Amino acid sequence: MNTTSTPLSALHRLFVLLFAICATALFGGCADEVPQYQSVFFYEALPSTPREMRETVALPSGTQFTLIKTPALGDENFLNAVAMRVGPADDRRPALLIQLDQYAASRVHQHTLRARGTRMFLGVNGQIVGVHPIMEEIRNGNVFFFVDLPHRTTEELEAKVVQLAKDLRESILVIRNSKE
């Protein structure tokens, strides 16, 4: 276990895995392939959120956040994942763009209308790997996550983000094919 990050609890990881399996079974029957990566969105928990509904997690860098335990969206709502660099020209950072289906885009839009100043999180296989600070409403279903993965150099982080985007696209394709 990485001592600089706190993975989601074992029970929560099990919930995420069961959520992904149930979604695949519900929407696509028995599929020949199982996605290698399960990814979900979480919302940041507010101080008023009941204690039993929140969990404190850490990114690989050690930065801690408190989020709502129940995923807001699952990868069955994802259309694509793309590695990008975002930010001002003099400070571009590696990020992962997740493109959402219409249902998920509507939910994210409604949430971002009322949750400015909070964050959304991207979890992959039980580990929080990305953060999206909500500064304005998201209308188009495109959500950028600043990725936090263990790395020594910016180039290494960029390579990891590119690989993560590729891996998530493959899993998204497996899930989408199982729906058809």
| Tally of domains | 1
Stated plainly, the CATH topology is called Gyrase A, domain 2
Amount of helix:
25-40%
The number of distinct β-strands equals 9
Report what the structure shows.
The protein is of the alpha+beta class and 180 residues long. It has one domain: Gyrase A, domain 2 (2-Layer Sandwich). Helix content is 32%, strand content 29%. The protein is built from 3 helices and 9 strands; from the N terminus they run H-E-E-E-E-E-E-H-E-E-E-H. It has helices spanning 10-28, 102-114, 154-179; strands at residues 39-43, 54-58, 64-68, 73-74, 78-86, 93-100, 119-124, 127-133, 142-147. A 7-stranded antiparallel β-sheet has the order 4-1-7-8-9-6-5, with helices on both faces. It has a two-stranded antiparallel ribbon with strand order 2-3. Strand 8 and strand 9 form a beta hairpin. Helix 1 packs across helix 3 (154-179). The protein is globular and about 40 Å long.
Task: Write the topology of this structure.
Layout: H1 10-28, E1 39-43, E2 54-58, E3 64-68, E4 73-74, E5 78-86, E6 93-100, H2 102-114, E7 119-124, E8 127-133, E9 142-147, H3 154-179
Antiparallel strand pairs: 1-4, 1-7, 2-3, 5-6, 6-9, 7-8, 8-9
Helix pairs in contact: 1-3
Briefly summarize what is shown.
With 180 residues, the chain is an alpha+beta fold. Helices cover 32% and strands 29% of the residues. Helix 1 crosses helix 3.
Keywords:
180 residues, disordered N terminus, Gyrase A, domain 2
